[in-house]
């Protein structure tokens, strides 16, 4: 461990370029001469493992996972190795072409000319959206109105950003997520049980858009153009989903679901031992809606459906009223790129808007199951506490609670009265958690 990062002792912002170059050279030589992992411990070198120190050393390179791969790493460093309790099915599912997984395929919805469709045709599309959301939690859309040259261009620019020399990327590296835009490897590097094989450029687009000069030149124009299109698509989907729920078309917009949103430009470098780590660990998005543009060539995205990991082939997609679990596998051969657009609502501390069950959907027999909460309260520390204790999934159509334990091993569905649910949630200290499930409408992948 010490050897690889030694040269970073004198690392500071004034000497950023010089130092990075020096270390990269030094590391290359070391890899060439030793053929080892630059001193970062791997599975085969388990003695003297100081995880926190290694995380910090990795973070301080500001070069991300791409930097490790460029330095010629041959084994996955231990900080990236997924503990078997969290994802011990990774290896098994690297080949998800199992018979059971093949039974399912992701619904594909054609949104073409939605504005020009008559009421009957529009209703058919809305039904498809709502059914896919309820039954699958994820769907792909085609004819979504985002031009192909723009989606291709966006993916290419993201790739170029992450493949710039390390010293150029390092200038954007920031773990201070209060800044509008930045580059970072693993937002939760110091909290997660293992690091993801992934780097990210992120940009918060609303409610306060970035100043163009805040965005790296290599991404600037394409990112701004793409974000205009993806926002339009998001608003369209919020409208369809509102209508599908039997609400006014602008209901979800009126409650500010589209008011705050961010773009995450992910890059998954090729990985020497993909069976030991994961690109993105299993999770459910906490946004109201996620629109995901994924790589045209490299697969890896999988959605959990009826306890099976189902591949999401490169194409355009989405979910409803439950936030489906998904993950991205690491892969041996080539880097993978994706752009996730999260409509997360107003997360600002000062925003007092509260979210809870949609009142119009409640009735005498369908009473509220959760108390109201603000997005700010719901996210951050509470979110982590929730993940460490219990995950709750609520599908209003089924009126059932799904309880998932942290070790992902057990899952059961139970019917509860609202009083029982409140008591149980209060006991866990996660009051108000329903905001995820009622509004976390899901993920939409675009190609
Ligand atoms: O890269 C992907 O395809 C998925 C990323 C993702 O799930 C996320 O950012 O929440
Ligand atoms: Fe996600």
TrEMBL record:
Organism in which the protein naturally occurs: Papaver somniferum (Opium poppy)
Domain Fe2OG dioxygenase residues, every copy: 259-345
Family named by the database record: Belongs to the iron/ascorbate-dependent oxidoreductase family.
PROSITE patterns: FE2OG_OXY
GO MF entry, a single one: metal ion binding
UniProt xrefs under InterPro entries: DIOX_N, IPNS-like_FE2OG_OXY, IPNS-like_sf, Oxoglu/Fe-dep_dioxygenase_dom
Annotated protein name in UniProt: Fe2OG dioxygenase domain-containing protein
Keyword Transcription regulation among record annotations: no
Key words, A-Z: Iron, Metal-binding, Oxidoreductase
């Amino acid at each position: 461990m010490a050897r690889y990062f030694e040269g970073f002792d004198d690392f500071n912002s004034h000497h950023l370029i010089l130092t990075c170059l020096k270390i990269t050279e030094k590391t290359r030589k070391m890899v060439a001469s030793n053929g080892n992992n630059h001193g970062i411990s791997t599975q085969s070198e388990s003695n003297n493992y100081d995880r926190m120190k290694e995380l910090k050393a990795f973070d301080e390179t500001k070069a991300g996972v791409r930097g490790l791969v460029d330095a010629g790493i041959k084994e996955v460093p231990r900080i990236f190795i997924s503990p078997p309790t969290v994802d011990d099915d990774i290896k098994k599912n690297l080949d998800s072409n199992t018979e059971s997984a093949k039974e399912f395929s992701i619904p594909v919805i054609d949104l073409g000319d939605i504005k020009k469709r008559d009421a009957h045709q529009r209703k058919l599309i809305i039904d498809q959206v709502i059914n896919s959301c309820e039954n699958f939690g994820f769907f792909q859309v085609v004819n979504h109105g985002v031009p192909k040259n723009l989606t291709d261009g966006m993916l290419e620019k993201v790739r170029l950003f992450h493949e710039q020399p390390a010293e150029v990327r390092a200038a954007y590296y920031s773990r201070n997520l209060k800044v509008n835009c930045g580059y970072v490897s693993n937002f939760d590097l110091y909290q997660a049980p293992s690091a993801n094989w992934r780097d990210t450029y992120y940009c918060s687009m609303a409610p306060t858009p970035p100043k163009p000069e805040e965005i790296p030149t290599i991404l600037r124009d394409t990112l701004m153009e793409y974000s205009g299109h993806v926002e339009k698509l998001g608003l369209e989907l919020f409208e369809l989903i509102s209508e599908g729920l039997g609400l006014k078309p602008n209901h979800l917009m009126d409650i500010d679901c589209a008011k705050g949103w961010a773009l995450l430009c992910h890059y998954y470098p090729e990985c020497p031992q993909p069976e030991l780590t994961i690109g993105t660990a299993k999770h459910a998005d906490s946004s109201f809606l996620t629109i995901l543009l994924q790589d045209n060539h490299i697969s890896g995205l999988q959605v959990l459906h009826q306890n099976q990991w189902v591949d999401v082939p490169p194409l355009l997609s989405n979910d409803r009223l439950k936030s489906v679990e998904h993950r991205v596998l690491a892969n041996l051969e080539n880097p993978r790129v994706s752009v996730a657009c999260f409509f997360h609502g107003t997360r600002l501390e000062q925003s007092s808007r509260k979210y809870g069950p949609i009142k119009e959907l409640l009735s005498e027999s369908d009473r509220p199951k959760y108390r109201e909460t603000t997005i700010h309260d719901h996210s951050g520390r509470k979110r982590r506490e929730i993940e460490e204790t219990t995950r709750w999934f609520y599908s209003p159509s089924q009126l059932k609670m799904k309880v998932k334990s942290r070790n992902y091993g057990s899952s059961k569905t139970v019917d509860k009265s609202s009083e029982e649910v409140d008591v149980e949630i209060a006991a866990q200290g996660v009051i108000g958690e329903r905001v995820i499930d009622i509004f976390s409408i899901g993920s939409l992948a675009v190609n």
